[in-house]
Fold each of these.
Amino acid sequence: MWMNRLDQAFAALADPTRRGIVVHLARGEASVSDLVSLFSLTQPTISSHLKVLESAGLISRSRVAQLRPCKLETEQLKAVTDWLEKLQEIWEGNYQRLDALLAELKQAQKEEPNK
Amino acid sequence: MKPAEVSTPSDREVLVKRSFDAPVNLVWQAYTEPALMRRWLTAMPGWSMPVCEMATHVGGKYRWRWRDENGQEFGFTGEMLEVALHSKIVHTQIYDPGDCDFGSMGGEPSIITVTFNETNGITNVATSIKYASKADRDAAMSTGMTDGMEMSYQSLDGVLAG
């Protein structure tokens, strides 16, 4: 369940417009009409992007205020960045061993320039 | 060197970038000679690479397998699609789960593109992993998460044992 949510979040963030919306909402809440004028897209297009972000748990929309402002759900965004961090750790672990190996190869080349 | 940068440029792709303080011929050697590959490509702490059959010609098949301290194994196999000395390697990659339950990674092969670029003795390496479908990428991402979590549990064990 939780993992499905994370997959959804990645799929949602794969779209440049939706990433743009997330970046904008990081600065504060915004209404649909704010986003329509900001991104120069139609209201239905913005609404469908918001629906994807909302079902991925990345944003929430107020049920109270008439304009239903959109708000970033930082918890879910953190799950995504945490995942990228873990992946980064695995690669970086390999690369640090590669750094050490390359230093050794460079040294060997210096000592035996004709090899 | 700056730590590796991981990004997801599209819903089917993961991109990893890193620079190395060495000329491209040495980086190339480390990426293509099995004896050298096994020394750094060990996947995760506690894992080794007992099988590393490499191919550096188009159409050649490679086979990589990893094993952990408990004898659990998983691997990758695939075919070389493009090899340009000191500049580019493109290959397919099929996940062989072995006896590791890392979850499904999808049946379709991914396409791995590694590019090498040297400037002033520093070699920039970019690795793109393109999954056959978004579902495959999501499955692989879930796997990555599992690996990562396993790793933190292991470090936690280490701290508790100390």
Amino acid sequence: MIAEAKKRGIITVVDGAQAIPHLPVDVQDLGCDFYAFSGHKMYAPTGIGVLYGREELLEQMPPWQGGGEMIDQVTFEKTTYAKLPFKFEAGTPHIAGIIGLGEAVRWMRDYDLSAMAAHEHALLEHGTKELLAIDGLRIIGTAKKKVGVISFVIEGVHHYDLGTLLDQQGIAVRTGHHCTQPLMEHFSISGTTRASFAPFNTIAEVDAMVAATKKAVKMLR
Amino acid sequence: MNTTLEQAQQEIVDEFAMLGDWQDRYEQLIELGKELPLIAPEFKTEENLVRGCQSRVWLTAELVSSTSLGELPVVHFTADSDAMITKGLVALLVRVLNDRTPQEIMSTPLTFIDRIGLREHLSPNRSNGLVAMLDQMKRYALAYSAK
């Protein structure tokens, strides 16, 4: 997609919040112009994230906010701004969050990201197989190379009810339209239940999720 | 009317006190949801929809004049939801607030949901339509109290 956009002179911005904790990412390999991700999805504190941008583009962009530490020279005739990245970092930065994010990146680098991705893939395959054994269950989103998420609907079972009953059994899932209402409309559904796997999850936990789902379905039907 | 709103709340609290664990409580809610009369399709309109992010609730109300002399008019609610647990909670709310005077609906604090351990469903974060439904019920009562 990025290559196609490039051919047409379109600037690409990747929302990588979901990929960062699950896959090794190389922005130069991807060739995107911008890549954004949030810290809290990769075990860092909340309220901090990263926007990568190609230097050439960042140089061309005007500051988006004024404040301390972002100017070079100011006279009544002309104001020049500080160099990158200071131009975009007006005021007092989120110091504690930045330190936390840095530590999270260091901590993650101690792990083998490819091995983590392989483990998540095993959880995904196992969970998919077990969930599909439930009568009336349909998985929404079956791309071959998808990350460790299973979004599903069950005939005669509302996702809010299922989410509530899974919560009671100590299973955390997300339910609803996941901020993708047009997509839900496309599938003619009101929402889904979505189980997401992280590298620290185990096969036994996936089994517990499936068992809890079966119990909930039994209660609701 | 036989019971006050306060007594109706107490009855529900007593019923739920007899239930054991979470599973019994939720099975009871699901049963209540299944028992709630289905709202007629013509009432399931955009206008009557109380929007929730997760589940949807439909609510209508009318002011019913009493047949016996000297009794005040009461508010009659009809409601439904697309999710069963939400519907069970809707059934409970309708049960305590239905056919009461606007004054009683507005002046009696609702405590039973807290007391039966289902408070989390009335959290604004749940966005299941229940908080909005309760607001809407009180707004109907307020509007009718002016009549």
